[in-house]
Specification:
This protein is mostly helical. It has two domains: 3-74, no CATH class; 87-131, no CATH class. Helices cover 56% and strands 0% of the residues. The chain is built from six helices and no strands. It has helices spanning 3-9, 19-33, 43-69, 79-85, 89-96, 106-115. Helix 1 (3-9) crosses helix 3 and helix 2 crosses helix 3. The structure holds calcium ion (3 copies).
């Protein structure tokens, strides 16, 4: 069972999703979408329902992400916690910044484009001189 499903449907947080919980969640959604409370969904309300479901999924996904990244356990993602777990950008930056001056110059970008076999969108197989 995907944790995402648990996040969305496990209302009492016991790690199991019961039929009742699914029904309750659906009823909750419906009631929330039925803005005028007439017991039926108008086109606008149906759109609202879709938004609610989409929101639920995004929130659940965010909650799962926070749980994974939250080093100090405060239930929030601090900037440092994000940085620490998404180190992918740092090596790329370091690699591009060949002279290590903390900035990436156009030359360095060109060199990266030529040297690493990354397809350039500028077209033409010829780059600058080999470095
Ligand atoms: Ca449950
Ligand atoms: Ca309605
Ligand atoms: Ca935290």
């Amino acid at each position: 069972m995907a944790p995402l499903m648990l996040e969305i449907y496990d209302l009492d947080g016991d790690g199991r999703i019961t039929r009742e919980e699914i029904e309750a969640r659906k009823a909750e959604r419906f009631a929330e979408a039925d803005a005028d409370g007439d017991g039926g969904l108008s086109p606008e309300e149906l759109v609202a329902l879709e938004d609610i479901i989409r929101d639920e999924i995004r929130r659940a996904r965010a909650a799962a992400t926070i749980e994974r990244f939250d080093d100090n356990g405060d239930g929030l993602l601090q900037f440092e916690e994000i940085e620490e777990r998404t180190p992918r950008l740092a090596p790329i930056f370091d690699r591009l910044d060949r002279d290590g001056d903390g900035g990436i110059s156009q030359d360095e970008l060109d060199a990266a484009g030529d040297g690493r076999g990354e397809p350039s969108r500028r077209g033409g197989p010829r780059g600058r001189d080999r470095g």
